[in-house]
Amino acid sequence: MTLTTDTDTLARPSPRGPVSEILLDIVPQPADGATAALAALGAAVEAALASSRDIAFDDDLQLALLVLYGLHYGTVDADDSWEWNPQLLTVRSSIERAYERQLRERVPLPAFPEHNAEAVASALFRLTSEDDGPSLSRYIAREATEEQLIEFVVHRSIYTLKEADPHTWAIPRLSGRAKAAMVEIQADEYGGGRAERIHAAIFARTMRGLGLDDRYGAYIDNVPAITMASFTMMSMFGLNRRLRGAISGHLAAFEMTSSVPNRFYGNGFRRHGYGPDVTWYYDEHVEADAVHEQIAGRDLAGSLAEDEPELLPDIMFGAAACLAVDGWAGRSILDAWTSGRSSLRLPVERRPVSLA
Question: Of 106, 138, 160, which residue constitutes the final position of a domain?
């Protein structure tokens, strides 16, 4: 199995337990010739779920989810028929149910607002403004070493090289005003029709400017489970129609907590002498996300709550889960850095770069 972009193929990631080991062995095979291995995979998943205390931090299950979602994103080099293989879908569904259940048990929810756009938007702005998660962005702006900046970009590459794609799954699952709002936001994320301005492409430029490999999946072995957990959570929300409220709330919180941190991130790189080839991605989001947060709060999440009131609890859950999981990931990184340790599982090699 390889993780791939449109034109590049990468070495397969290293397994992190019995589930990911069996899965990584299965997907290179023809989909009609792995009956015994699929049975073994199902048994391994059942055992892993029974023993896992926290799926968000479970390396084996998070890597398995990343690979399973990769079949839909096209980041896994595999027989296309695996994408909708009933047995793999059953495996994915088993992990998703357990992951969602744990998130619902552990993510605190705010009081629900009235079912109108202004009340929902106000509640979401209040929720995000009261978030007391670790300020990774302020640390990066003021204290992070160059090595820590590189680690930060490596962590973010797992989502950002596929930026916007998890939320785009929601477009056909929405209708009316909510769909129009989602499309408006996503059109900006995809560069307004200009390939060089697609946000994932701009982030790839940041990686190249830092001497990093910009191919998707190059650093999967380097990052811990909690880094993958943020991406797999939003993928789970986006790919399941019943969770369309959660992915809408997630996007609202995501946009509402993006503009100011990205200003700090850009400042952190400038502090170390990096120029626009590296900071463009962060500077672009300062302005864009200040607009997106209004659209996401009122026109997307707010109008969805008005049109489908039964989705309000999931809208608030999605927003709260975004803050919680990103907060867990940020705390893990900061705890490592402030203890003098790397936040990565494995060190990163990069090409020499010139700041001239």
Answer: 106
**In 3D, which of 70, 55, 65, 161 has the Cα closest to residue 100?**
55
- Same domain, yes or no, for 234 and 136? yes
Nearest to 199 by CA among 167, 239, 233: 167
**Which residues touch 356 (CB under 8 Å, ≥6 apart)?**
none
Q: How far apart are CA 258 and CA 316, in angstroms?
A: 18
Angle, to 10 degrees, between the axis of helix 35-51 and the axis of helix 18-26?
Answer: 160
Does 150 share its domain with 40?
Answer: no
Q: Are residues 121 and 100 in the same domain?
A: no
Question: Are residue 145 and residue 249 in the same domain, yes or no?
Answer: yes
CATH code of the domain covering residue 317: 1.20.910.10
182 is a domain residue: yes
8 Å CB contact between 128 and 292? no
Structural domain of 88: 2-106
Of 230, 229, 226, 221, the closest CA to residue 16 belongs to 221
pTM over 0.90: yes
Ranges in the chain, pLDDT < 50: 1-2, 4-10
Taking the CA atoms of residue 67, residue 69, residue 74 and residue 80 in that order, the dihedral angle to the nearest 10 degrees is 80
In a domain, 51, yes or no: yes
Residue-wise pLDDT tens digits, 205-252: 999 999 999 999 999 999 999 999 999 999 999 999 999 999 999 999
Question: Taking each helix axis from N to C terminus, what angle separates 176-189 and 276-294, rounded to the nearest 10 degrees?
Answer: 170
Q: Which two tokens stand for residue 294?
A: 């209004």
Number of domains in the chain: 2
